[in-house]
Design goal:
single chain, alpha/beta, 5-stranded parallel beta sheet, elongated
Length: about 260
């Protein structure tokens, strides 16, 4: 069956996207349509803070984009050499992450991630609260413009100092409506649509409703995790599958079961 994945292709990866690969193992044909576009901001400030590990109690990354912003800072003016001396200072603290994709990017810049199995910001915040107390220096949290407030709120309510910096802005992909229209015109209404963020729900739903028309109720909607599932449900859609963890095998299994 046809499955529409509302996400961008994996960047810099060799071979097929893992979500397409996992779904094809179940006999389903998946297509990717990117939903979001990103603009990096405040990189000078980010760079400044990255090179002052002594001012912080640790790092928090809840998205691959935030780590990509770090990579961009390190690629400017041969800062990689300086970073070689500083990364050990960060690794002497804790580098918290959500999800395997973010964890693997963190490892690429020479840092040792903790929390890759947490899956959501809610679970990560509980892990941080178990490990840290209010005596630590601020945790530094580079994030996106549409971050949820769950993690910052949980830490602040428990007295854990936190410093956030917006390092990328999220917007709708400029070709989203055109790409969705082409897909529905050429392949028809998909058996399942997988959504990867609440922003994806907000940006796609109106167009998907229009293109699917009365067949909307036949589509099995799947979510990468509970927050996205809640966003779908809030729009009155039935969520037929939600990944137990935000990985390709878990989402593919949920979609295959729904179909």
């Amino acid at each position: 069956m046809n499955v529409l994945l509302l996400k961008e292709p994996r960047e810099g990866g060799n071979g097929p996207d893992p979500y397409i690969k996992e779904l094809s193992a179940y006999g389903h044909k998946a297509t990717l349509i990117p939903v979001l576009s990103f603009k990096f901001v405040s990189l000078d400030t980010l760079s400044e803070k990255l090179f002052q590990p002594e001012k912080y109690g640790g790092l928090i990354f809840t998205s691959p984009r935030a780590v990509e912003a770090v990579k961009m800072c390190l690629g400017v003016n041969n800062k990689k050499e300086v970073w070689e001396n500083l990364k050990d200072k960060w690794n002497a603290k804790t580098v918290y992450v959500v999800g395997k994709a973010t964890a693997s990017l963190v490892e690429e810049v020479g840092l040792s991630p903790v929390g890759e199995d947490t899956g959501t910001a809610d679970v990560l915040s509980r892990l941080i609260l178990e490990r840290e107390d209010s005596n630590i220096m601020p945790l530094f949290f580079p994030c996106g413009s549409i971050k949820r407030e769950v993690l910052p709120t949980a830490l602040r309510e428990n007295g854990i100092p936190l410093e956030t910096l917006t390092v990328y802005q999220t917007a709708q992909h400029p070709d989203l409506e055109k790409n969705l229209t082409n897909y529905f015109t050429q392949q028809g209404v998909p058996a399942s649509i997988a959504v990867f963020s609440p922003s994806g729900v907000n940006f796609c739903l109106e167009t998907v409703r229009r293109l699917a028309g009365p067949q909307l109720s036949h589509i099995k909607f799947a979510a990468i995790g509970p927050t996205t599932a809640d966003a779908l449900a809030a729009e009155g859609l039935t969520v037929s599958g939600s990944a137990e963890k935000p990985t390709a095998p878990h989402l593919a299994a949920a979609i295959a079961q729904a179909l």
